[in-house]
Design a protein that fits this description.
There is one protein chain. The protein has one helix spanning 19-24; strands spanning 7-8, 15-17, 28-32, 35-39, 61-63. The protein has 80 residues and is mainly β. It has one domain (7-63). The strands form two sheets. The protein has a three-stranded antiparallel beta sheet with strand order 1-2-5.
Length: 80
């Protein structure tokens, strides 16, 4: 949140950033099954045309990526 100046938006539950914050976003890279994948800055935001569908403000920028290190969850995998 510090790098982008994101703030928590109570209406959507997502992080909200300014245009300047969006300009600071960098691609995120991760590996799945030994393959490297890129999540570009544009792929990290909620589609702006759908903001009002989730209770957000038209024209605002909402992140769909957040820090999940402190959120307890269980990862389950299945083999086909």
């Amino acid at each position: 949140m510090t790098a982008t100046g994101a703030t928590s938006d109570a209406s959507t539950g997502l992080l909200k950033i300014s245009n300047d914050g969006f300009k600071k976003l960098k691609s995120l890279f991760f590996n799945i099954g030994g393959e490297r994948h890129e999540l570009t800055p544009n792929a990290q935001i909620w589609p702006r045309a759908l903001n009002t569908a989730i209770g957000g403000q038209a024209g605002s920028i909402y992140l769909v990526v957040a820090d999940v290190r402190n959120i307890p969850f269980t990862l389950e995998t299945t083999k086909s």
